Amino acid sequence: MSQHIHELIDKRWSPRSFANKAIEMDKLEKLFTAASYAASCYNEQPWRFVYATNEYPEGYKQLFSCLGEFNQMWVKTAPVIILTLVAKNFARNQNPNAHAQHDLGLAIGNMSVQAMSMDLYLHQMAGFSVEKAIEVFNIPDDFEPVTMIAVGYLGDPSQLPDSIREMESPKRDRKNLDQLLFDGDWEKLK
Ligand SMILES: Cc1cc2nc3c(=O)[nH]c(=O)nc-3n(C[C@H](O)[C@H](O)[C@H](O)COP(=O)(O)O)c2cc1C
Questions:
Q1: From the CB of 125, is ligand 1 less than 6 Å away?
Q2: 164 Cα: distance to centroid of ligand 1 (angstroms)
Q3: How far is CA 140 from CA 15, 136, 144, in A?
């Protein structure tokens, strides 16, 4: 089936080894612009991003310090780190926005496709300290950190520690569509 899927979606995967090559500023801007073109509930655009390139060591170190131990072992080769956040409430009426994380996901989906079109790879992470991110970046109460992302060009896996190198593969492990699709009554089809 994968040969019928758009190349930019099909070739995406999440590497842990990145090349020692900076991301050009115009490309970085395109990643964020693509993210900002996503649909969102009431067009609230609840996504926010804190980012740093490794050419700005102070900001890079701050982001890096929020990562969990496992992720720190490999993120160090990524030239860019991003922290993603959402606004918890609608700006229009201050009610909780139950779809903010959904909308952020759409934005990062756009970013992934734009990245692939420029041979850049994202590796999204839940393994970071939300509390530390709030403290380090002085994040106000009405915003919530959601993920961190390592971004860069594909690197040589030999630079990874052994245990992580074994995991480095574009091989896709996915559920079959018959485990995901329900046509009619959920119970009858299980
Ligand atoms: C929200 C989210 C959180 C993730 N957290 C981590 C993480 O903390 N560390 C890590 O190495 N990979 C993390 N991943 C990567 C997933 O393991 C990976 O996307 C999944 O195994 C599918 O592989 P693929 O992206 O190469 O297709 C995360 C992915 C997502 C979308």
A1: yes
A2: 13
A3: 32, 11, 8
